[in-house]
Specification:
By secondary structure, the protein is α/β, with parallel strands linked by helices. It has three domains: 4-239, 3-Layer(aba) Sandwich (Carbamate kinase); 244-262 and 347-424, Ribosome-recycling factor (Topoisomerase I, Chain A, domain 4, Orthogonal Bundle), CATH 1.10.132; 272-342, Gyrase A, domain 2 (2-Layer Sandwich). The chain has eleven helices and 19 strands. It has an eight-stranded mixed beta sheet with strand order 5-4-6-3-2-7-10-13, sandwiched between helices. The chain has a four-stranded antiparallel beta sheet with strand order 16-17-19-18, covered by helices on one side. The chain has a three-stranded antiparallel beta sheet with strand order 1-12-11, with no helix packed on it. A hairpin with a 4-residue loop joins β11 and β12. α1 crosses α3, α8 (242-266) runs parallel beside α11 and α10 packs antiparallel against α11 (391-424). The longest helix has 38 residues, at 348-385.
């Protein structure tokens, strides 16, 4: 599958990730490992922001269920996220990185206040920015904070690092038959109440067009090049892989346009016998309308005669009637269980009329294919607008769609050429 190239990303880490194999707090070795992977990304020139949860130290919602005031608990949880942010800052600085912690709560002695323009300026200067204390208000999770900060700093991608490799119908660590979803859209996540991120975070991403991926924090980190980070595709993504869907949809629709043209031209009678002439003729078979070729053998007896042999004697009269009543202008004759369908010769004037008809049908097919190209390119433009793909990806996608268009227009020309040869054959 394809890669998504980003120049500014926000990475959401759960507080539990910092525990490593422990049950509480921060595992120094695991923290150092995470800091090393963050450094590898940042050294490529990618502008990187972090949001870290506080569940390894304190989770206000859990204690609120035990009687603690929810607002108090949430503020305590915000302080826990600040502790984790300071720990990550120290680990990154020990690896030579420039880091800024920005808090939604004012704690000037230990970090900066969060100011959007200042955060973007830090990122532009190549500093890793760690956003702490959620959004500074109770009842909002760090997932919501990650979505909001990603939108505010104009990130190209929001990544949530967790303990699983994507989205499942249930926790795969505890539910053996949990179903894996390789790709979803935000509406599906909300409708199925999938525990990807909380609903507020998902709605923010959906409404602001923020691409989202889920990755396994225990897997090796993203590979990098000199200008951008490339995030590989085992993770759930709402974004660039949709280019493949656009291509598949365009391929299917263009193919159906050519197929439909073939069906329409088959209705145009030539002076030569061909079994496909009766493909569109339907007959009632035990109450169901089916094509003649599903109840009878249709063969070419000579250049101007078709021989139709129904598989059941009782179908001879219905098949004869269906052919006679079709709009093909044919006059079959029946002898025993064989229905012979003679094709009258075409006059020169009638041939020219039919050629004009088939050329018109072919042009309709070309227009349909070009309209499909227009729809696909419009989808690509919308994906750029919503920051799901880059402008370079859009250009490559348009080139791909143009190649498809050229291919299927050529197929239309070939179908038309073959039909014109049949019409002109004496």
């Amino acid at each position: 599958m394809s890669d998504l190239i980003c120049r500014r990303i926000l990475l959401k880490l759960s507080g539990e990730a910092l525990m490593g194999e422990g049950d509480y707090g921060v595992d120094p070795d695991y923290l150092t490992r995470l800091a090393g992977e963050v450094r590898q990304i940042a050294e490529t020139g990618v502008q990187l922001g972090l949001v870290i949860g506080g569940g390894n130290i304190f989770r206000g919602e859990g204690l609120a269920k035990g009687g603690l005031n929810r607002v108090t608990g949430d503020y305590m949880g915000m302080l826990a996220t600040l502790m984790n942010a300071l720990a990550m800052q120290d680990a990154l600085e020990r690896q030579g990185m420039q880091v800024r912690v920005m808090s939604a709560l004012r704690i000037n002695q230990v970090c900066e206040d969060y100011i959007q323009r200042r955060a973007i300026r830090h990122l532009e200067k190549g500093r890793v920015v760690i956003f702490a204390a959620g959004i500074g208000n109770p009842f909002f999770t760090t997932d919501s904070a990650a979505s909001l900060r990603a939108i505010e700093i104009g990130a190209d991608l929001l990544i949530k690092a967790t303990k699983v490799d994507g989205v499942y119908s249930a926790d795969p660590l505890t539910t053996a038959d949990a179903v894996f979803y390789p790709r979803l859209d935000y509406t599906q996540v909300l409708a199925q109440n999938l525990k990807v991120m909380d609903a507020t975070a998902i709605v923010l991403c959906r409404d602001q067009g923020m691409p989202l991926r889920i990755m396994n924090i225990n897997e090796p980190g993203p590979s990098c090049d000199s200008c951008a980070v490339r995030i590989s595709e085992p993770w759930w993504t709402v974004g660039k892989e949709m280019i493949d869907d656009i291509k598949k949809d365009a391929t299917t629709r263009m193919g159906k346009s050519v197929e439909s043209l073939g069906h329409e031209l088959a209705k145009v009678r030539t002076g030569r016998a061909h079994p496909s002439l009766l493909d569109q003729v339907k007959v009632s078979y035990y109450g169901t309308e089916v094509p003649v070729n599903q109840v009878a053998n249709v063969n070419v007896e000579d250049a101007r005669t078709l021989a139709v042999t129904p598989w059941e004697q009782s179908m001879v009269a219905p098949v004869d009637k269906a052919i006679r009543n079709s709009d093909l202008g044919l006059n079959p004759s029946t002898a025993g269980n064989v229905i012979r369908v003679p094709l009258p010769a075409l006059t020169e004037e009638r041939r020219k009329d039919l050629i004009r008809i088939v050329r018109h049908e072919a042009e309709n097919a070309r227009v349909a294919i070009r309209n499909i190209r227009r729809d696909a390119n419009s989808d690509l433009k919308n994906m750029v607008k919503e920051k799901m793909i880059s402008e370079d990806d859009e250009r490559r996608g348009q080139e791909m769609i143009q190649k498809l268009t050229d291919k299927y227009v050529k197929d239309v020309d070939q179908v038309l050429e073959e039909k014109e040869k049949d019409l002109m054959a004496v």
